[in-house]
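Sharing a chain and its predicted structure for anyone who wants a worked example. Both blocks are below, sequence first, tokens second.
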Amino acid sequence: MTLEQLENLIAQRSSAPSSESWTAQLLEKGAEKCAEKFGEEAVELIIEAVKNDSNGLINEAADVMYHLLVLLKSREISLSHVMAELERRTAQSGLTEKAARKT
């Protein structure tokens, strides 16, 4: 599955009844709840990385990606906007890009 396919799946599930869709439940609770859930998953990812648990890290990485896209959906920001920003940043060296953000 690509991230674009996951984004499309999230969009489909967002319009399902919340009794039938975890995605719809999260989005119904608002962006703040989506952000909280993303943060929880990010912490769990870090824990698995520190434990050096490959399977746990893979599972948590999938959770982080899903919850990031749900969070973006909650604010009506598309993956294509994020990818365009990454494209803009990779047009120059990372050190140059980072230095430019300080000004």
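Comments welcome. Residues 12 and 101 are 36 Å apart (CA to CA).
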